[in-house]
Amino acid sequence: MKKIAPFFLVLALVFFGFGCGSTPTTGSTPPGTTTTSSGNTYQALANQGQGVYANKCVACHGANGQGTGVGPALWGSSYQPGIYNGGTLFAPNGQAMLNFISSSMPLNAPGSLSHSEAVNVLCYLLIQDNQITPSSTFDEGQLSTLSLK
Ligand code: HEC
């Protein structure tokens, strides 16, 4: 046993070491961080979101949200939130749109946005599309009741 015990100790350390190291970090948001943007105005968040849009969305959705050959329009008279090519991408409310952006956009790197980036760019899009009064207060808990037209 005296010779074997250290071997098992090392084995255990390696095992647990790898166990910890390979624990999947699923990108889940730590508790309490999902509503940090609440309390700001939509406009304040959209000011941040404009930069996100310029960096990560404009290539496919266009400088004026008019769409390109790759991505559809995201604001303007012909834009219907959640409808793409006649099919439904998400329910027409703010929460569903946030979820879609977080999980599916940018199309070339889905899931890469931080929570606040997704919130900020959502606020930018909602203002561009006249879905919200810019000076109103953003409350993430109320997003599901914000119906989009
Ligand atoms: C590489 C191209 C590309 C990039 C970059 C991209 N998108 Fe998209 N986006 C698309 C395509 C294509 C669709 C159509 C739906 C689909 O294919 O999933 C779409 C759909 C959408 C929709 C749904 C439109 C609707 O009908 O309501 C939203 C919202 C959206 N994108 C937001 C964003 C945001 C925000 C960013 C930047 C963070 C972004 N996209 C970056 C290509 C892109």
Task: Provide a descriptive summary of the structure in words.
This protein has a domain at 36-137: Cytochrome Bc1 Complex, Chain D, domain 2. It is an all-alpha fold and 149 residues long. A hairpin with a 2-residue loop joins strand 1 and strand 2 (87-88). A two-stranded antiparallel ribbon has the order 1-2. The chain is built from 5 helices and 2 strands. The chain starts with a helix and ends in a 21-residue tail after the last helix. The structure holds heme C. Heme C binds next to helix 2, helix 3, strand 1 and helix 4. GO terms for molecular function: electron transfer activity; heme binding; metal ion binding. Pfam families: Cytochrom_C (PF00034). Keywords: Electron transport, Heme, Iron, Metal-binding, Transport. InterPro entries: Cyt_c-like_dom (IPR009056), Cyt_c-like_dom_sf (IPR036909), Cytochrome_c550/c551-like (IPR051811).
